[in-house]
Design goal:
about 230 residues, mainly beta, 4-stranded antiparallel beta sheet, 4 helices, about 35% strand, extended, Elongation Factor Tu (Ef-tu), domain 3
Length: about 230
């Protein structure tokens, strides 16, 4: 499992070799630096701690200052841990860039969804709502929220109005349309969670690992019926 940290720059369109318009999201992926390497022998699992961006030194606590100084990197703004199968190829202070992925790869992108504030149940959970007529007096209200006197309480997990958005979301199997190493850009097909300039985690797709080749289904011609063969 390989991965890199990045920042969402926005969306645009590109054209494929066949002239088809493809909507893509531009992700500024890297450069990232490896801050810490965790192994199964010392920590119980294999992982790397990666930092992206820069941060003013006065905003960093003393423990983190020591870690960053030991790794020989400037204080990063966005730090996350990425699980890897084998931590041996990674070294502290190593730089990870956009060419970690190539055109045609598939990735899983994790980010924080856009906050929408306090929302009602129709928008938050897709309730149908009441009648639209003026005499209905019930359009987008909550309605009954318990199962009667027997239970006497609201069941756990009941869908109600509340805060919407700002959730950790992962979109899987996004195709990498192009990689621009000079500008540290990765173009992925479709949308990714979060607003512009929000931080993202781009990892190798779990369901379609690096080097995945989509096999086209073989079309089997139907066998001729016995009656048709006898007529000939």
């Amino acid at each position: 499992m390989i991965g890199i940290l990045g920042k969402k720059l926005g969306m645009t369109n590109v054209y494929s070799e066949t002239g088809k318009m493809v909507p893509v999201t531009l992700i500024e992926a890297g450069p990232c630096h490896v801050i810490q390497v965790k192994t199964k022998d010392s920590d119980g699992y294999n992982a790397i701690q990666v930092g992206f961006g820069t941060k003013r030194e006065k905003l960093v606590g003393n423990p983190d200052k020591g870690r960053f100084k030991k790794a020989g990197v400037t204080p990063p703004r966005f730090v996350r841990e990425i699980r890897v199968v084998d931590a041996a190829p990674y070294k502290v202070g190593q730089k990870l860039e956009a060419d970690l992925f190539a055109k045609g790869d598939y990735v899983d992108v994790t980010g924080t969804s856009i906050g929408k504030g306090f929302q009602g149940g129709v928008k938050r959970w897709g309730w149908a709502g009441g009648d639209a007529g003026h005499g209905s007096m019930f359009h987008r209200a909550v309605g009954s929220i318990q199962s009667g006197a027997r239970l006497g309480r609201v069941t756990k997990g009941h869908h109600l109005p509340g805060h919407m958005g700002v959730d950790k979301i992962t979109i899987q199997n996004l195709e990498v349309i192009d990689v621009d190493k000079a500008n540290n850009l990765i173009l992925v097909k479709g949308n990714v969670p979060g607003h512009k300039n929000s931080f993202l985690i781009v990892k190798e797709a779990r369901k379609r690992p690096k080097g995945f080749v989509k096999i086209k289904p073989v079309q089997v011609k139907p066998k001729k019926s016995v009656k048709a063969a006898m007529k000939k």
